[in-house]
């Protein structure tokens, strides 16, 4: 992915160069780190800061010293008891981080100690250190600070895998993004504008509608005041949306089906509006349209590595050029994780919320 090992030095010699805290007890015990755990299922009050041993990178893994962790809706669902970690994943929440390479496991090539990176995780990000499969690491894009890079991996991988791989978005397509100023939406609109589509967005309130336009939407609709189905038909001249990226789920199913164009694709990636809804099958059949859904967290290490490879190859140049910029709303310390979750769940938030150790 990126080659940073100095010439003439093998990886084993580098593995002795790590800078873990020098507070380990005798007999080779691992030093400890601060991290977040949930004391049970519930509200932000179940968030607690605990001390745990710094994880050891296994074969094919890298230990990252965390500079910042991105917060996601999945973290809230996990806290509420609705979205447990996949088998074998850390119970510590957090699906994306940025930081620097601290230790390198056996069989990993191409990464140097201290290299600035960001990473896609199955869990473990709300911590001072986290282990990552090497294929899910990415270099920090040019022009982005190490801290702000934590706002990129999850949204970039989600948007690329669902819009470009799954829905096969093409130049010139009308693409409707629900929640145009959220973490996913703010990235999706920039990506869609950069690759030559005609993005549309829903948002809550005049300020967010205007921000959606600034992020690249050809037009944006206030879902509190407007019928987005009618507005999509109006703006597209009756064509409809070729693709819809939906974070709402059940509550928007019927409306999304009506807003789709002939051959349209509805991609559901969130359940903010509930898990159940009515889908007009006849309408869908008449349009030759289809509905799909996915979660990034449950995909295999190999699948995630391929997604991240494409993100680095195709999306990072857009970030480096300034066509896409990370949208950071607020930053909290690790000790303020409960307050960060409270803010994440408000309607006032735009862009990403970050935790810094």
UniProtKB/TrEMBL annotation:
Gene Ontology MF, one: NADPH binding
UniProt xrefs under InterPro entries: ADH-like_C, ADH-like_N, ER, GroES-like_sf, NAD(P)-bd_dom_sf, Quinone_OxRdtase_PIG3
UniProt key word Plastid: no
SMART domains listed in its UniProt record: PKS_ER
Short name of one Pfam family: ADH_N
Regions of compositional bias (Basic and acidic residues) in chain numbering: 15-26
Location of the region described as Disordered in the Swiss-Prot/TrEMBL record: 1-28
Domain Enoyl reductase (ER): 42-355
Keywords linked to the UniProt accession: NADP, Oxidoreductase
Bias type Polar residues, positions: 1-14
Record's protein name: Putative NAD(P)H quinone oxidoreductase, PIG3 family
